[in-house]
Design goal:
159 residues; alpha+beta; five-stranded mixed sheet; 3 helices; 25% helix
Amino acid sequence: MRRARPGAPPRGTAERALTSVEAGADFDEGQSTETAEARGEERVVVASKLWHITLSVSGAEAPLKEVRRGLEQLAHDHPFLLTSRYANDHAEIRYWEEARDLHDAAAVALRLWGEHRQSAKLPPWEIVGLEVIDRETYHQRIAEGYGPPPAAPVGVHPY
């Protein structure tokens, strides 16, 4: 069985294909059963965008060795992870997420720590901060010299 984020393409695929599903025959009974195509309407497909995520977590102190090992496992499990910085009582994770809109990107980011807590043996810390910005804003901030500094070398690093 393949484990991945809902809607994520299999690893190694260049792009995501978007599809739609018509409502069942009994949906909205009494309404016209004519499809959008039959009425001459165009279906609007919203393309995905890249979002830069910064997730901050903290909690009770944990051995640095275990924190590092857990973050390295998370980086292995979550292929889009850019960099992690950590101390014995907090960590910051940065990565790119592909999502339709900010709401979807934030929802996935807020689930990341909890969904991987057991499999990566992460500390039982809580999410204390989340920043989600689109790609254009990220690059504009960097060009203007403020905002999150570019991810230091990709990987897991102590503060």
